[in-house]
From TrEMBL:
The keyword Repeat does not apply. It comes from the Bacteria. It holds the Pfam family NTP_transf_3. Keywords: Magnesium. SUPFAM superfamilies: Nucleotide-diphospho-sugar transferases. This is MobA-like NTP transferase domain-containing protein. The keyword Glycoprotein does not apply. It comes from Gluconobacter thailandicus NBRC 3257.
Amino acid sequence: MTLPVLVLAGSRDGEQDILAQLGKVSHKALLPVRGEPMLGRVLRTLDATPGLGPVTISIEAPACIRDIAGTAQVLKAAPSPSESVAEALAHIGTPCLVTTADHALLRPEWITEFLGKTANCDLAVGVALKATVERDVPNTKRTYIRLSDMSFSGCNLFWMGTPRAEAVVELWKRLQKDRKRPLKMARTLGFGTLLRALLGRLDSRALCQRIEALTGARVRLVPLSDGQAAVDVDKPADLILAEELLAQRPS
């Protein structure tokens, strides 16, 4: 069997996105990276990865990717990433792999490594440890989530293994909806969890256990061996870095 894939290509700003303006394109997903649209690079990588099946793309303006979507199904994106994932899962079901259109450096071996570490969980999140990123991409500035036992950056790879993963997406939707109301977010996560996080005493195991208590889903953080997996193209400096790293790869 092949594994369905969801590619999140949404951008709230459309043509006004700074990267879309930089690339003189109608949407961030079409930004050229070394001459090829980011979304096209991601689709080509997915096609080159063994075991992956039909691809679904979520984007606000489906017409703008008609020329590069190929055989992929295209869904109109919702106002937020969490809502887009929830709506797409209703079409795709589980299991499925989720990634993003701005993951211009994505490599088949990262996907294979990630999927090989998703056993016995309902949802897995690909991450790169801070030390790994600093080793492999010393000239980058990433945003890190700091826990007591690890600091990591996300790699835009998510495994939705069972229907229980949908409950985590619903939790994500609630938190995203309340992102400007910290007190309500704290109530959702639990004040004890928030206090431990603020004091630097929350570890990865406790975090995953708290999510399981809230959703019933077994969640796993999956560290990847290549720090470049944490580099997406989210700002102009990322574009420069991605093109430099791609130039160093064998053709």
